[in-house]
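Protein modeling request. Please complete all fields; requests missing the sequence field cannot be processed.
Requester role: graduate student
Desired output: 3D structure, token encoding
Chains: 1
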Amino acid sequence: MKVAFPTNNLKKIASHTALSKYLAIVDIGNGEIMERVAVKNPIPEMVKDGMGSEETGRGLGAGRIIPAILSDYGVELFVARDIGEGMRMNLEYAGISVLETEEKEIEKIIESLIRG
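Delivered output (116 residues):
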């Protein structure tokens, strides 16, 4: 199962999905981590170039861009601390389940998914 997390440092789940620096994708199979990939999130660069709102990333199409990226990588589960309704709908439409969590540590989520 491929799981994705919005993150700025590849260790903690970012508080804001659209403005996270990376989308960490972890492939979990046979009770272990098979592969890790860090995909640069294009939204912060778009904000830096003067598009959309710097505070929220609104107006940049994050709710369409991020689900498309994750779908291309075959992600099945997206784990975030907070997620907007539009992003959630687009993720689910792309066949990606969504898990909102208070947990900040990516490794703790991965461990719990491995243990089942």
